[in-house]
Structure formats: structure tokens, C-alpha cells
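PT: before anyone asks, these are the final sequences, not the draft ones from last week. 231 residues across everything. Please model them as a single complex and drop the result in this thread when it's through.
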Amino acid sequence: MTTIADRLANAQHRIEQAAQISSRNANEIQLLAVSKTKPNSDILAAYTAGQRRFGENYVQEGESKVNALKDCCPEIEWHFIGPLQSNKTKIIASHFHWMHTVSREKIASRLNEQRPKEMPPLNICIQINISGEASKSGATPEELESLASKIEQMPNLILRGLMAIPTATSDKQLQTDEFQQLQTLYQELKSLYPRVDTLSMGMSNDLEQAIAQGSTMVRIGSAIFGERDKP
Ligand SMILES: *Cc1c(COP(=O)(O)O)cnc(C)c1O
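LR: through. Structure below.
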């Protein structure tokens, strides 16, 4: 039987190998453990094994986990990676360290207003809809520059980079094309704002391809915590 600690070590190992193949330093690629739908005991197991960054997708679940794990796991850095409605922004602004899915000025501006003054600025990634499908969330590449410049002017937010969920496909060429387009947008953003340092892309099944195309943060759920129950 494999444990969460074993699977975490395995995910780390995959990151190191993928980095090596691309002649990259594995230290520049962070592992975000995606714990959505999983119990607090699983998060504690990963924390005990040394993991510090965790990603959650659902507002209520995330809030309750942040509160429940505050005392036993004080060093957790919480990342919100799910869709967010504007009436829920306050919960994210007051509980999380990072928010990966900003795609509209309205959401950014509410997070900026609602970030508690005693907390450091909220780290922001702009989510990009790279496939251009209307059904998907994220800003279009054309909207990126203007949204980034607005976020830059918000004192309680720090623009850290881009996040994307590329098309789920077995077509390796399409997948590589999308990762490459994201990497290009990321480099453009970085040239405008040198502080930008995060390209959040790659999940359990495609982290190797994402790292080959410059990912700096892979979001790994099922490879660490096992398959999720279907909702
Ligand atoms: C669930 C989720 C992940 C993790 O996916 P796995 O395939 O389980 O690794 C990563 N990113 C986002 C945005 C997710 O919703």
C-alpha cells in the first residue's frame, strides 16, 4: 500500500526528472498539492511529510479547511484555484495567500478592497482561457495586458503570473501548442512586470509536458491524494 508521503515523494521525483530533461533547475518548479474533496487528515499527512503549499477549489470547503488546520499546520500556504463568484470574494480575500483564477477586473477589485489590512497583499495569477472556448473560464490573451495593468495598481494585490487549465486531450501536439502559447504570454507579461515569477500549469497527467514548456508551479491532486470521488 502506498501512503500519501510515498506519492508526494513520487510527484517530487517526477518534477525533478522533468526538470532535468529540460535542463532546468527543479528548485524553480513548485509543487502545489491540490486537496479538494479530501479530508483534513490527508492534508495533515502531506504536511507532516513536508508539503507546505495546498490548493483548494471550493469556497466553503476551503474556508473550513483553513480554519480547521490553522493550529496544527501553521505554515500552510493556501492557494485558491477554483472558480469564484463575486459574492464570495471576501472569504478568499480573508483566508488565502494566493488566488489563481482572476479573470475579471471586478473580481480583482473586490479582492483588493476586501483584503484585511493586517494581512500581506494577496498573490494573484490571471487565469488565461487558452483554447478560446466560450464555455471555459479565464481571460483571453487579448484581455491580459489591460487586466494586468489594473491589478498592478491595486495596493493589496501582487501580480505573480498566469494560470491555465489547457484542453483535456490525448492530442500531444495540441497540448504542447497550448502550453507554448502560455509560456509566450508569460514571457511577455514578465517583460512588462519583472516581478512576475509564476506560470501555474500542469496537473497529475501532464506535469512533464508543462515543465518542458516552462511551468513554475504544477498543481497535483490525484497523483498525491488518489482519485477523487465523483460529485
Ligand atoms: C483538480 C485540479 C487540479 C488537480 O488535478 P489532478 O489531475 O487531480 O492532478 C489542478 N488544477 C485545478 C484548477 C484543479 O481544479
